[in-house]
Amino acid sequence: xxxxxxxxxxxxxxxxxxxxxxxxxxxxxxxxxxxxxxxxxxxxxxxxxxxxxxxxxxxxxxxxxxxxxxxxxxxxxxxxxxxxxxxxxxxxxxxxxxxxxxxxxxxxxxxxxxxxxxxxxxxxxxxxxxxxxxxxxxxxxxxxxxxxxxxxxxxxxxxxxxxxxxxxxxxxxxxxxxxxxxxxxxxxxxxxxxxxxxxxxxxxxxxxxxxxxxxxxxxxxxxxxxxxxxxxxxxxxxxxxxxxxxxxxxxxxxxxxxxxxxxxxxxxxxxxxxxxxxxxxxxxxxxxxxxxxx
Length: 294
Prior knowledge:
By secondary structure, the chain is mainly beta. Helices cover about 0% and strands about 50% of the residues.
């Protein structure tokens, strides 16, 4: 100690012994209780990439509660925890927290609307809420219902699976989930699967490439992959007055793979490709019914 200078005593470094709960679902926001020793002020907890620290509450020098949000793209698996006191002293706990991928998300008008909607009883009441927490490769299951005046852009790999009963115990493909479209469903730079849906009354999207025109009455894929199965694609059009190019009355693909199986494509209209128009790419069609497309 220097003569005449008061120095604050050095505080001991913290330790972390436990985090509870020890796991969380991707897309979830939850409170974690962290226990250890020598916590002071508002320590910060770091669980690695894609886990956001929202709030810290100091209970005492052995316990804090932290509120975190796990991003839906967070990599699954065990994470190390690092706790830092305001004096920058650190504590580490190896394999302290496990991020669990969420494969299924549910949408139903009778759900409790509890994010991340991974149990049928917690089902979202909005498709967009479920999509917001769905990670790459997840499946969004929809009860039999009608979504009026809808169009959606998909930028990550996802499956939309309709025709479920409200308890999500069985599917009836004779009672499909219906999308009444404003424009269409678009997938870009991703892989989209549509299963057990009715897509009707869409009017496509206006684009300048490959030519100025209207494309994909019900759905279009741009540099991606579109898989349609067990669907009905009905009475869509890509014709818009004033535009001379209208391609893909039901479906349009640009540099994409388009696969259609076990579906009905009927009553769709375009100047080119009343049912489907592929501009580059390719795909496979099997066991479909095409009728009255022009």
